[in-house]
Amino acid sequence: PHEVLLVVDGNTGQNALAQVKAFDAAVGLTGLIVTKLDGTAKGGVLAAIARWGAERDAGKAPVPVYFIGIGEKLQDLETFDAREFAQALLG
């Protein structure tokens, strides 16, 4: 495959991080899609995933987040922009 993507639910918190770690160990992830970042999920799991990515095995690049879902429709899937997301998260 050209990409190995994992779709995780942003509402699951630390469980999403555990899923990312397990899937990466099993299949070598190349990217993520994080859904359900509307409502109560503020995306804190993205910070945990970023930290894990920075501490990941030497020589492996961090796993990029390609898209985030901010609603329930296909049109609510957006390209992830880290700077824009951080600004929105911090108000």
Give a topology summary.
Elements: E1 5-9, H1 14-27, E2 31-35, H2 44-55, E3 65-69, E4 77-79, H3 82-90
Parallel strand pairs: 1-2, 2-3
Antiparallel strand pairs: 3-4
Helix pairs in contact: 1-2
Tell me briefly what this model is:
The protein is of the alpha/beta class. The protein is 38% helix and 20% strand. The termini are far apart.
Structure, explained:
By secondary structure, the chain is α/β, with parallel strands linked by helices. The longest helix is centred in the N-terminal third of the chain and has 14 residues, at 14-27. It is globular and about 35 Å long. Helix 1 (14-27) links the parallel strand 1 (5-9) and strand 2 (31-35). The mean pLDDT is 87. Helix 1 packs parallel to helix 2 (44-55). Helix content is 38%, strand content 20%. The termini are far apart. The chain is built from three helices and four strands, in the order βαβαββα. The protein has a four-stranded mixed beta sheet, covered by helices on one side. The chain has helices at 14-27, 44-55, 82-90, and strands at 5-9, 31-35, 65-69, 77-79.
What keyword list fits this structure?
38% helix, alpha/beta, 91 residues, 3 helices, globular, four-stranded mixed sheet
